[in-house]
Structure formats: C-alpha cells, structure tokens
C-alpha cells in the first residue's frame, strides 16, 4: 500500500505528530486529491489546544485544501485526473484533512480552480468563505436569509452593514459577500493598516467604534462578527448597533446567549459543517468557482511557510499568539523534506512532539 506524510493529532489536546500513513482510496462519489496547498485556520489551533469539535481520534486537521485530482471513485462525473480543485475538508477524520499529502473529498463538494489564481490563493477560500456565506445567505433561522440561491439580481442598495474584524479571513469574505449583494454602506472595524485593501474588497468605511454613527444614520440591520476568539464586549458592541429587526451573525457556533428581544433582533451562531447547510452548500459550490473567476470573490493574501508539513506547528502558534494579520498562512504538503525525514525521521518527530500550540 502506498504511503504519505501527515501531521496527526493522536488524541485531544495532544501535541501534533509527524508520521507516515496510508494513502486512502476514494469510495463511491469521492475523489482522491494530491494536496498542493493547505491553509491554516484559528479553528485548527482551538481544536488542538482545547479539545473541541472533534469527537474521534486520531485525526488530521486542515480544512482548506487545493490540489490536483489524482483518482476518481465510482460514479464520479465531470472531473478528470489532473483537474485543479479546491474544497473544504468535510470530516474530522484522517482521510479527509488537509495536513497531509493526499486527501479525500466528495465530488459534489469541490470546485475547479479558476486559471488565473494559484493553488495557494485557492486554498485561502473554502472554510472562511463558507463561514461568511452560511451566516449571511441561507434561509432563516440558520442564516440571515439574504440570498439563499446566490442570485446575482438580489441587491440591497439602500441598506448598511457592519463587519467586526474585517481584516480576518472571514471578515474579508463577509465584506465581499455584502458588496456582491449591493449594500450601500459596508462599515468595518479593523486595523488601519488594512484600510486600502479592505476598501478594494468593498468596504466603504474603516473606522474606530466611536466614529461609527458619524458615518451613517441609516439603521444597521446586518452585523457580522468575524472574530473566532473575540475580546470581551465585542458581541455586545455589535448587538448595540443593530436596528429593530436586525440580525447579528457570529462566526462561532455558540455566541453569547440573549433573551428574546422585544424589538425582534436576533443572533445567529455559525457552525460551517452543520448538516442543515447541506442544501445551500450544494448551491454554493456550483456558483463559487464562477464568482472567483469573475472577480466577485477575491482570495485572501497568503504567506507560504517553508518545508511543508513541518512548519504547521509554528504557524499555528503564530495564529494563536495573534501574530498574523490580514494574510492566510499556507503550506505545501508535497514539499515536506522527504529525504531529510528518511535520514532524521525520529529526530524531527521528537521535535514536533515537543511543541504544542
């Protein structure tokens, strides 16, 4: 059986271990992908550090993947070996994660990479675009219901929205989705160093919290909190901006609990892998590649880490320590130094074992 290199989380809150595992075979309706780029996300840090979300170990993390179709499972149509594809890892199981050199995916849950973007750029999109999209677009109660079919004719030309954390990967995509929907005013709280870039994505104003009401007197019916680990009071600040009947989307599954609001305001927590989004996800993956091709969705800016899988642990530490801003960290699993690993595998594995995020 052929083997590959993978970064494995053997149990909850354990250090990562670099090891050799079998290359899986695609099942019915599945595709085996040679992983050319895999992006790091704060949720990877949270799973390893806090033991959340994942219920079965060992597991391989890495939710954002881009690569080449290597093998087709039974009944897969519309794809060929060598096609460039990008996708969000569907399950927290070893065969599906991106922190390895080959991964499985359902053929219905991927898109072809547009020719004008790189694997690295493509890998910056799936998870964080999905997180932004499922909060804003699907039908209520699990989404804000702004455009469940991603119909380009649906516009909100007289409405204003606020994105807290616009410089994050999720925040950048929330801004772009609101721009796609034609919102008149898109205000964001983010570091001033990102002003020009966020305006290029569709933000109309980047402000301090204190200046918010000097920009628009229009009611804010849509607030997106795009911060995975928000500071105390962040959700309160967003909620305080909501007009009666407004909706605040929070990019975590369990936002601050709120009593029933007499003015009809509501809070939506996001779990991008929840089964009730399945129908919307089918629609999204049919339309997302064309949106990227047309420039309606722009990938995150990326920073590529050297030495493939070996660099993931240090990259996740940087994320956890708040040392990454405005870019997506990406690794190339195929560039894991195989020759060096052959000679010094135990030394490298011990080094990885000694680090914890």
Walkthrough of the structure:
With about 350 residues, the protein is of the alpha/beta class. It has two domains: about 5-125 and about 300-355, Quinone Oxidoreductase, Chain A, domain 1 (Alpha-Beta Complex); about 130-270, NAD(P)-binding Rossmann-like Domain (Rossmann fold). Helices cover about 25% and strands about 25% of the residues. It has ten helices and 15 strands. It has helices at about 40-50, 120-125, 125-135, 170-180, 195-200, 210-215, 235-240, 280-295, 310-320, 340-355; strands at about 5-10, 15-20, 30-40, 65-70, 85-90, 100-105, 110, 160-165, 185-190, 205, 220-225, 240-250, 265-270, 300-305, 330. Strands 3, 4, 5, 6, 7, 14 and 15 form a seven-stranded mixed beta sheet that branches. A six-stranded parallel beta sheet has the order 10-9-8-11-12-13, sandwiched between helices. A two-stranded antiparallel sheet has the order 1-2. Helix 5 (about 195-200) links the parallel strand 9 and strand 10 (about 205). Helix 1 crosses helix 9 and helix 3 crosses helix 4. It starts with a strand and ends with a helix.
Number of strands: 15
The value of Rg in angstroms is: 20 Å
Q: How much beta, percentage-wise?
A: 15-25%
Mean pLDDT: 90
What overall form do the CA principal axes indicate? globular
Show unreliable segments: 340-357
Share of helix among residues?
A: 25-40%
Give the end-to-end Cα distance, rounded to a whole number of Å.
Answer: 32 Å
Examine the secondary-structure arrangement and name the CATH architecture of the largest domain.
Alpha-Beta Complex
Query: CATH homologous superfamily of the largest domain - what is it?
Result: Medium-chain alcohol dehydrogenases, catalytic domain
**Largest beta-sheet characterization:** 7 strands, mixed
Under CATH at level 1, the class of the largest domain stands as Alpha Beta
The CATH topology name of the largest domain reads Quinone Oxidoreductase, Chain A, domain 1
| Tally of domains | 2
Task: Provide the structure class.
Answer: alpha/beta
GO molecular function, one term: oxidoreductase activity, acting on NAD(P)H
Pfam families: ADH_N, ADH_zinc_N
InterPro entries: ADH-like_C, ADH-like_N, ER, GroES-like_sf, NAD(P)-bd_dom_sf, Trans-enoyl_RdTase-like
Domain Enoyl reductase (ER): 13-331
């Amino acid at each position: 059986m052929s083997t590959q290199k993978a970064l494995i989380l053997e149990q909850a809150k354990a250090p990562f271990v670099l090891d050799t595992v079998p290359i899986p075979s695609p099942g019915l309706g599945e595709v085996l992908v040679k992983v050319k780029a895999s992006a790091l996300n704060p949720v990877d840090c949270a799973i390893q550090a806090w033991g959340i979300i994942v219920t079965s170990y060992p597991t391989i993390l890495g939710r954002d993947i881009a690569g080449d179709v290597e093998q087709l499972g039974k009944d897969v149509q519309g794809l060929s070996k060598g096609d460039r594809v990008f996708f969000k890892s569907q399950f927290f199981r070893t065969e599906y994660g991106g922190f390895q050199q080959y991964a499985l995916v359902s053929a219905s849950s991927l898109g072809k990479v547009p020719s004008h973007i790189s694997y690295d750029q493509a890998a910056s999109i799936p998870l964080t675009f999905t997180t932004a999209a499922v909060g804003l677009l699907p039908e209520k109660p699990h989404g804000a219901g702004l455009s469940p079919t991603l119909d380009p004719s649906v516009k909100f030309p007289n409405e204003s929205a606020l994105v807290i954390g616009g410089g994050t990967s999720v925040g950048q995509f929330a801004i772009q989705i609101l721009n796609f929907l034609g919102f008149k005013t898109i205000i964001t709280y983010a570091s001033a160093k990102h002003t020009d870039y966020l305006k290029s994505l569709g933000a109309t104003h980047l402000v301090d919290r204190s200046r918010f009401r000097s920009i628009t007197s229009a009611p804010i019916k849509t607030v997106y909190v795009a911060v995975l680990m928000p500071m105390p009071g962040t959700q309160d600040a967003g909620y305080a901006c909501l007009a009666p009947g407004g909706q605040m989307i929070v990019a975590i599954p369990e936002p601050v609990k709120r009593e029933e609001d007499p003015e009809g305001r509501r809070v939506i927590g996001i779990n991008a892998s929840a089964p009730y989004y399945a129908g919307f996800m089918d629609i999204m993956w049919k339309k997302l590649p064309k949106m990227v091709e047309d420039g309606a969705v722009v990938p995150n800016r990326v920073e590529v880490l050297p030495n493939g899988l070996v660099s993931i642990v240090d990259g996740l530490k940087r994320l956890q320590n708040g040392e990454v801003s405005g870019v997506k960290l990406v690794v190339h699993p195929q560039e894991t130094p195989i020759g060096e690993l052959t000679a010094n595998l135990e030394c490298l594995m011990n080094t990885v074992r000694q680090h914890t995020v």
